[in-house]
Amino acid sequence: MALLIKNGEIVTASDRYIADIFCESETITRIGRDLQAPPGAEVIDATGKYVFPGFIDPHVHIYLPFMGTFAKDTHATASQAALVGGTTTFIEMICPARGDQPMEAFELWLGKAQGQSACDFTFHMGVTRYDSDAESQLKEIVSRGLSSFKIFLAYKGAFGVTDEELYHTLRLAKKLGVITTAHCENADLVLELQKRLLSEGKTGPEWHHESRPPLVEAEGVHHLITFAEMHNAHIYIVHLSCEEALREAVAGKYRGVNVWVETLIQYLLTDKTDAEKPNFEGAKFVMSPPLRDKRNQPILWNGLRTGLISTLATDHAPFDFATQKIMGKGDFTKIPNGIPSLEDRVNAFYTYGVAQGRVDLHRFVDAGSTQAAKLFGLFPRKGTIQLGSDADLVIYDPKYRGKISAKTHAMNVDYNAFEGMEISGRPSVVTVRGQVAVQEGKFIGDKSRGQFLQREPSHF
Length: 460
Ligand code: URP
Ligand code: ZN
Ligand code: ZN
Hints:
The chain has helices spanning 75-84, 102-113, 132-143, 163-176, 187-199, 208-211, 214-231, 243-255, 265-269, 296-306, 345-354, 361-375, and strands spanning 3-11, 16-24, 27-32, 42-45, 50-53, 55-60, 65-66, 69-70, 87-94, 120-126, 148-152, 179-183, 235-237, 259-264, 311-313, 393-403, 422-432, 435-439, 442-443. The protein has 460 residues and is of the alpha/beta class. Strands 1, 2, 3, 4, 5, 16, 17, 18 and 19 form a 9-stranded mixed beta sheet that branches. The chain has an 8-stranded parallel beta sheet with strand order 6-9-10-11-12-13-14-15. Strand 11, helix 4 (163-176) and strand 12 (179-183) form a beta-alpha-beta unit. The protein is globular, with a radius of gyration of 21 Å. Bound molecules: N-(aminocarbonyl)-beta-alanine (URP) and zinc ion (2 copies).
């Protein structure tokens, strides 16, 4: 059915104006004033509301075998939670074990998502082993529509790659025109620090930060940039958490390295004292790189405001407190790493960014949607509002007031790291390719509408 959205204030990364939007055959076909609805079209009055392009989360884990367990969400629960929160596209990490075949992993992850997701999706291909066999499979996976890799410098013995593998992955990425996303922490330093802390009887979640201090992350960023510079490869640093790491990334940019930076909503709103909460509550806030000292937060906000940090993601990785986080009681190195946040990113970014004057509306859209679309080959199909773009739209009510809570969230996890936080604004209506999926905080859409988005390499 055709859809006409009337009188909304359209906001993109570059423009802001009041107009009507007409959507037909899944895309935006007309934008203008006083558009008339043809018979049978659905009409939504967006007076007093913003209309944003659907938000894109470029770093999500849904099917994730990790640290002896599996992340809790399914593609059904995660995609519906994403939509309720205004995210209409996510990029999930395919994370095969070292011994797995890349092509089998690709098929496995694709099979888990296809027909199960309410919103559109694509993947970064995790490279967790590099040899000639993996290389030929990676080439085929790129030809099947994945134009980004993911590597881990951390998690030695699990997802982590050696320097030799890093060298060859980046060389292949350059050759194929693929951007490589990377988790940057020095794995050997983490292992040594973990061993030392445990031997000193320091076993609680409050020690997680000490096992992965800012220097460990900064070294990882420097290391990645050095290797990328060798090949003139394009790299994207995921979940950057602190000033030390940002300085290394900026130094790389200054030298002309093609490096982009992502930070997470968790680093902006929670900090290392959360992981120090008593009675093992701190385990809810254990992720890697760890939540940092609060002094980093204004630096990350400034990075987002100025564009030194391109994107704001979630690294959504939901593990229940009662049955999964608890696996690390008595040994913080066994706490499944991750903080769920897919549903809350957009509202929290709007509330603490736009409404509190830290970023303007355009950077909000840019960092929450447009930059991810541009970096990962989805633009202008996604990430903006223009003729021909997919009609993924968020009609946003800035007058809404509420609180985040696990009692009301749609994510399939038993806690919320932002429990009790005030929200000023939320999506009133969310559409997926022209069809209404969310109305006033409730998913009402087609549970299997989501499509796999195939992406072309950039040939940079
Ligand atoms: O702690 C985290 N970040 N968990 C998810 C896996 C990863 O490192 O991205
Ligand atoms: Zn990571
Ligand atoms: Zn991640």
